[in-house]
Amino acid sequence: xxxxxxxxxxxxxxxxxxxxxxxxxxxxxxxxxxxxxxxxxxxxxxxxxxxxxxxxxxxxxxxxxxxxxxxxxxxxxxxxxxxxxxxxxxxxxxxxxxxxxxxxxxxxxxxxxxxxxxxxxxxxxxxxxxxxxxxxxxxxxxxxxxxxxxxxxxxxxxxxxxxxxxxx
Length: 168
Known about the structure:
30% helix, alpha+beta, globular
């Protein structure tokens, strides 16, 4: 049995968060970044998210950070202020063991406590079946595919858009 604990992230978690994200930047099309951000850049991003009152969570197992998730503003214009975008990354050594599900449940629960009404998933690579399945399990529905909008690893990559109502 995998026992995961989810909690709010702290500045001390940033090294592990940057390490996890680095893997996805360098090895996958689930993010369209091509250069891994530094720990300092990750700290700025986290601070920006927290300043909006949005959650930035980590998942621990046996005291070690094995994944993280956050919600961010979907778009900067005021009319989008009740819509958030989710991001979840799990240490590849712990993928498929329930950390992602645990993070998603906690992230949705926290966002439902705030003023937000819609959660959007912008999934890099239409071949990212694990992320698409995870979102489907939590009630997200596909609302579109942006074809060939990213170029990474010498190929054109799609973005899958999924949406979930947080509350009515």
